[in-house]
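Researcher: I'm preparing a figure for a lab meeting and need a structural model of a single chain. I don't have an experimental structure, so a prediction will have to do for now. The sequence is pasted below. Please return the structure as tokens so I can convert it later.
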Amino acid sequence: MSATTTEDRHSHSLKRRLLASMAAAFVLLLLLISVLLWNYSRAAANRTYDLLLAGAALSVLERVSYNSAGPTVDLPQSAMDILALAADDRVAYRVFSPNYGELTGTPDLPVPESLQPSIDPVFYDAKLDEGFRFVYQGRQITSSRGREWVFVQIGQTLNARKAQRDTLFLYGMIGLGAVSLIGLGFVWLAIRTSLAPLRAIADTLMARTSRDLSPIEGDPPLEISDLFRAINSFIAQLVRSRNLTESFIADVAHQTRTSLSALQGQLSLAADANEFDRMRDRLGKAEKQAERTVHLTNQLLANAMVIHRSEDAQLEPMDLRMLVRDTLAELLRERRLRQVSISFDDSGLPEGKAPIRGDAISIREALRNLIDNAVRHGGQENTILIEIDADAQVVRLTVSDAGPGIARADLVRATERFTSINSKTAGSGLGLAIVRSVAEGHGARLQLGSSVLGGLRATIVFPRLLVVALACLLLTMQANAVSARELVIHAATDPGAMRPLVDAFEAQSPGWTITYREYQTVDLYREVRDADPETRADVIISSAMDLQVELVNRGLARTLRLPNAILPPDWARWRSQLFGFTWEPAAIIYDKREFDEEDLPTSHRDLASFIRENESKLRGEVGGYDLRRSGIGYLFATQDTIQSVQAQRLTEVLARANAQSFCCTSEMLDAVAAGKLSMALNVIGSYAMKRDPAPGQENIGVHFLDDYNLVMSRTAWVPKTAPEPEMAERFVAFLLSAEGQSIINLKTPLIPLLLSREQPLGLEDVRPAGNASFLPIRLGPGLLTFLDRIKRDEFLRSWVSSMGGQDYGP
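Model: Understood. Here is the structure written out token by token.
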């Protein structure tokens, strides 16, 4: 038995069908269980993360107090740290009082109408720009009016709970799937044992020769007795089919033998003739018999060829009109067609083409037989009309003649093999049978009827090949490809530092230009927050990590699919939307002409004491950020209050020393280089260390403390409204790629974030000997704490008051 037969037998195995039925039952059961498991997983995930929301709400409610202006709240860092346990979720919150309105947070968060004041947490789902899960909880405080309700409402997106839900569901389904597979294994063994009698029947059939078509004998089990009878019935049909085939071969042999015998007889009579006229008459009859024999042989060969090609031909797109014209040009060279009027009409083709999918050799043979049939039966004054017409679905090839035609009652049997309707003009009886085989092999139809010329009208109806022209679309795409496109980057980073990166990316992006616009960190934040459509950007870059997190937390960022190989460490990415690409520690810069390295303090406690002890020398010569204008300065200052209890003391010491405030690192570097400052704090270390000093500026020194040194990362993200999001994603990927990080290291004053093993590059260059206390600032909801309106206002008021400046207003 052939490989194909064996393969087909296995693909329709009864065992597999039984197993598939059992598997379907298992699948149905699994589906029912999966619904229950899904509901359980969702409830379990909600319970887990609802505890985070409840803990954060309690933490905030504990910091609610009452003063002369009414209720207020000091948003605790612990609340955001709790929410940050769901690291990839955005956060929304508000604190409000029915009598005093909104205290802080995002106004007008959705609240179900049925909610009543309660000290118990209430959880519910709501839709903002994406799905959120909220907790709503209240607390009563004592005010001048009596007892007042204050409510906190905190929400998180659903990413973490969906991930936990999917994990619980997946693990449960894996266990159920494993049990189901074991069960199906036992079912398979039972099926094999039960169907052993079928294998015996198969072995019996496999052992037979091709000539053995005797019925199978035996006593099969009751369950397969019908199959047993069906096999024997099929064997009987094979016997009948073989008998028909043998009969057809015998008919063909008989037709050929008869024709050849007649030819031989005429030649023998011609050889025996004594008179020239009689010999000539016999030779003429022999010639006609030879023509009939040749025609019969050609028809038999054509019939076999057409049947073979209809089973194995590869149909290809072609123009039927051109094929018909070429065939007619060949036929008209034959002598027997010179006395026949043949015309061709293709006016029914509106586009001048007749597209079909076909086999040229088979179609040419069918057309030859239709024309030959028309010539044979049409008589001396015959006219043959060949037509091609088409519509949206089909193409029709029609051959009409002026002969006697075929009676309607004989049309059906006219296409049978060895059938001639007119005995006077009888041929091989295969012409129309060949045409029918060609039509069937092309998925076409052969239609016979009466023609307008009075004879037979034979039409082959082909399916039309539909071709869609794309020229206009291709031209449009090419025109778009030629025109230059623009990538817009808005960044709070010195253009000189970013220029090598921009130039390298532009060089590898033909047809693109990059527009780079510089901002201060706070100005950039306000522009993006206010969503000015005239200044829409593709990429946002800033060193103010907290402001970047706040913008992404608003739902403004697009999720990027970056390769795992270039992803930054966990602390330097958030939600697959915000990515850090540099490693930049906060440093102390000093004037080497004023201080020696070994005289400088080694901790934040010592720093405050150092400035106080040298107050007279440092008065007016210590610099720092103006927290009202500098986003990175505010970030470093707030992180210092979290990491060190000395932060407030240091601020007071700086105020006593008349410290100066600056907007940015470059101004402090220039002031130290010019001798206007002896020291500047929390300067972005990368600028100080990588700076190529101009003549006279070699006096700048960089110093790190031993207790901790904050490390920030410049971050980049792509807005949802970016005009060119794909190219923007490519640029962010370029910043994190090996090439981009190498350019940062070698050609910019910045420090790259990644090496091939995700280790900070240049770390040994910035670490004093034995000091490994660099503390990266983690991206995430924790950075939102000091961006709370009340907390920020209070922090800046305290800073302005301590620094002796004018009061800070909202």
